[in-house]
Design goal:
This protein is an alpha/beta fold and about 400 residues long. It has 15 helices and 13 strands.
């Protein structure tokens, strides 16, 4: 139903809703679903969730929870067992201890991030978002009356925010810096030295909080563990909200469990908001998440190895196509591909491909290959490929991608 139809019927939507749009990635995924419902085969490289099933031990823990009657409301901030498991995991990763009381659990990391912004952002507050960025960050800020300040990064810098760019972007109105590492859509991850340089700038601006989104930290391909801002700069602990969840690491996207750990006052504010919205996360999902964090971890290592093989195949295939290029992602399950050198070319019927969005549409229309265009992530001239799908789908999709590029003139 359109806005004009709603108004005619006497329904008036809030202004905050008119400031935001539906997630572009959700739109792309739904389009794939719609095409498949029409009977069309689509080679889908849009999906942002593991193609693996949830580990058996985790599913068994959920079944036990149901059998034991653990089906009632839980504390607003999550069951103590899960908050303790989260605190233990963070301490192991960062060396910084968090009291489990300073951990909150929500219906996915996405919800927790939204509530954190709701609890802290007022009209006129600025939130720094390095681009390329996860598609939801700017709209979350807008929905909470804040101003997203997009800070461009360069491919030459590995799509990572530099200390100089951060220093230039901070103003007296800056409330948050959002730091997603490893990042979506690029797979880029900050080294300890790069994080130290950012921490030195943040030390000059004590009014700036930092939200670290580390949802891909265990989908990791390098020999050394992923670096972490708290591990590098523990002195910032009272200004850092660390967010994560079980969705990507444990193939538990539909279970909807995420968490945040940080300053006591901020966690308490998030809990207050949750108490008036969803009351608490799913009890069954929480017990499953306890098992995910504390049980057998072989699934994590095994799936990361598979993703690494797929990453290498995607990077090699993309780099073999004249006119396309990409960096090598350190984590996550995405490759961010530059199509800048093919923009401006023409299809066989004379259509000029002027934008990355038009290129993505051409892929879908001519070869049934679905990707997400880079402008959705604040990076025109690029597109995102997900390798959270089978090698067979990847091989066929990239062969079709090559055909499209080769046909342009």
């Amino acid at each position: 139903m359109s806005q004009s139809t709603l108004q005619a019927s006497g329904t008036r939507l809030a202004q905050r809703l008119q400031r935001i749009a539906t997630s572009p990635s959700s739109v792309a995924v739904q389009k794939v679903r719609d095409l498949r419902a029409q009977g069309r085969q689509v080679w889908d490289l849009t999906v942002g969730e593991p193609d693996f099933d949830t580990p058996e031990n985790v599913k068994a823990a959920a079944v036990r929870a149901i059998a034991e009657g653990r089906t009632k409301y839980t504390p607003v901030n999550g069951i103590p067992q899960l908050r303790t498991a989260v605190a233990d995991r963070i301490a192991a990763r960062t060396g910084v201890a968090h009291d489990p009381a300073h951990v909150t659990v929500g219906g996915g990391a996405k919800q927790v991030i939204f509530l954190a912004l709701s609890a802290t952002v007022d009209h006129g507050d600025e939130v720094l978002i390095p681009a390329p960025y996860w598609v939801s960050y700017p709209d979350m800020v807008k929905a909470n009356d804040g101003t997203p300040v997009i800070v461009p990064t360069r491919a030459a810098d590995g799509f990572k925010l530099t200390a100089a760019a951060l220093r230039e972007a901070i103003t007296p109105a800056t409330r948050w810096l959002i730091l997603n590492t490893p990042g979506n859509p690029t797979g880029a991850a900050y080294s300890a030295g790069e994080l130290r340089a950012l921490a030195d700038v943040l030390a000059e601006h004590p009014h700036v909080l930092v939200l670290t989104d580390e949802i891909y930290d265990e989908v990791w391909f390098e020999a050394e563990p992923a670096s972490n801002l708290l591990a590098v700069a523990p002195e910032l602990a009272e200004r850092v909200l660390l967010t994560n969840g079980v969705s990507k690491t444990y193939a538990m996207t539909g279970w909807r469990i995420g968490w945040a750990a940080g300053p006591a006052e901020l966690i308490a504010a998030i809990n207050t908001l949750q108490s008036q919205t969803s009351s608490c996360p799913s009890s069954i999902s929480q017990w499953a998440a306890v098992e995910a964090l504390t049980g057998d971890q072989s699934f994590v290592e095994r799936t990361a190895a598979v993703y690494r093989e797929r990453r290498d195949a995607v990077v090699a295939a993309v780099r073999s196509i004249e006119g396309l290029s990409c960096l090598v992602p350190s984590g996550g399950f995405y490759a961010f591909v530059s199509c800048q050198d093919v923009l401006g070319k023409r299809t066989a019927d004379g259509q000029v491909i002027a934008t990355d969005e038009q290129f993505a549409a051409l892929l879908l229309d001519s070869e049934q290959v679905a990707v997400i265009h880079g402008a959705a992530y604040g990076a025109p001239g690029w597109f995102r490929v997900s390798f959270a799908t089978s090698q067979e789908v990847i091989d066929e999709a990239l062969a079709r991608l090559a055909r499209v590029v080769e046909a342009l003139s």
